[in-house]
Amino acid sequence: MQSKENGIFSFDPASNKKRIPTIIHIVKPSEGSTANEAEGKEQNQIDVLNAAFAGNDMGFEFVLIKVETHVSQDYWNEGPLKDNMVKATREGGMETLNMWFVALDTYLGYAVFPSDTFNELDGVVNLHSTIKGGTSSPYNLGATAVHEVGHWLGLYHSTY
Ligand SMILES: [Zn+2]
Fold first, then answer.
1. What is the pTM of this model?
2. Is 6 a residue whose pLDDT tops 60?
3. How many DSSP H helices and E strands does the chain contain?
């Protein structure tokens, strides 16, 4: 298993960090629904990730390049693993972090570990209310996504 630290990210000499273009997907069960607590709080999560990963020698910088909203009862209800949703909506190459905020019954979040070849399920899926400002107290500080992005980067449970 190869860590993504080994070269797929572009380096930003100005900040001395590796840039990770990040797409946040907001899934809603119906048009006009306010059920997804992450909606409108996307930048909170980027800020939490940058605070967690920039202040050490890993030097990653997350840049929110797009917020995509998907209105889909099927994705909202898909079950503990949102494979159909991820396959249908993922964008970009291996260097692009895709994060989905959606309803999850069993987990606070999960991530696909890195591999040498592109995985169509690549990305991080989070329970929407774990975002900073959500209602999943005490898991509403954005730390779930930090933990899962750590996995996505090739780190293990103990680190984050
Ligand atoms: Zn873990």
1. 0.89
2. no
3. 4, 6
- Residue 31 pLDDT > 60: yes
Torsion of CA 126, 78, 38, 46, to 10 degrees: 40
- Cα 152 to middle of ligand 1, angstroms: 10
Which residue in 39, 42, 61, 148 is the catalytic one? Answer: 148
Q: What pLDDT is attached to residue 1?
A: 39
159 found inside a domain:
no
Mean pLDDT of the region 67-94: 95
CATH code for position 52: 3.40.390.10
Structural domain includes residue 98: yes
Ligand 1 center from residue 147 Cα (angstroms): 6
State how many domains the chain has. 1
Residue whose pair of structure tokens reads 């909203």 in the numeric block: 69
Contact assessment for residue 80 and residue 121, using Cβ atoms and an 8 Å cutoff: no
Known active-site residue 148: yes
Q: Give residue 124 CA to ligand 1 midpoint distance, Å.
A: 12
Give the domain range for residue 49: 4-152
